[in-house]
Amino acid sequence: MATKKASKKSSAKSAKRPARKSGARASTARGSTPKNEAISQLTADHARVKKMFKQYDRLAKGDSGDREKQQLATMICAELTAHATAEEEIFYPAARSAIDKPDLIDEADVEHASAKDLIAQIEGSSPSDEHYDAKVKVLGEYINHHVQEEEGEMFPKVRKAKVDTVVLGEQIAQRKAQIMQKKGMA
Under the phi-then-psi rule, with left for phi > 0, alpha for psi from -120 to 50, and beta for the rest, what region is 22? Predict the structure, then answer.
């Protein structure tokens, strides 16, 4: 009897539920977003890099050796380079054509340019160099600001614009993998 009640409740719920959309938008509408969906993937990248910056901050405040800091800074720079390149080549062009806020994309491009400049400085130096820790810290602050704007403004607009973020996500994942492999991080 309990089984019949459960199945009646289940069918009653599904009768009230609207028809599911097909394709990429359906996955985000149901809440079961594929792992490589563009916005989920980029958001996961943001969280991963944020953790690395916190880890670096602990190393910089402690008695960690230069080797450990250099390895982590190299990984941060590689992750950010792969992420930014994939965004610039794949995500931003799709966002630009889908949303009516070109200034959001323009600002993101400028923020990427500033981050790339710091990345180049970090990659061209070592933890024993003057201002190395400060450069990594400032890069983290730039990225934090950039992430807030992307996740708070750009991503919601892209979701609303019915962009096929699953296909974009597959392209982004592939491009990031190429870059990481080229950097010897794959």
Answer: beta
pTM: 0.81
Q: What is the pLDDT of residues 35-76, one digit of tens each?
A: 789 999 999 999 999 999 999 999 999 888 899 999 999 999
Supply the pLDDT for residue 17: 31
- State the burial class of residue 45 (Cβ atoms within 10 Å of its Cβ: 0-12, 13-18, 19+): buried
- Kindly state the tokens that stand for 123: 């990659």
Is the CB of residue 115 less than 8 Å from the CB of residue 142? yes
The Cα 6–Cα 130 span in angstroms is: 67
Mean pLDDT value across the chain: 86
Degrees to nearest 5, angle at CA 81 with 75 and 83: 100
| CATH pick for 35-182 out of 1.20.120.520, 1.10.10.10, 3.40.720.10, 1.10.3210.10 | 1.20.120.520
Give the DSSP letter of residue 129: S
In this structure, which long-range contacts are made by residues 61-67, counting pairs with CB atoms below 8 Å and at least 24 apart in sequence?
Answer: 66/126, 66/127, 66/128
Helices (H) and strands (E) in the chain, counts: 9, 0
Distance CA 156, CA 186 (A): 30
pLDDT, tens digit, 9 for 90 and up, residues 169-183: 999 999 999 999 999
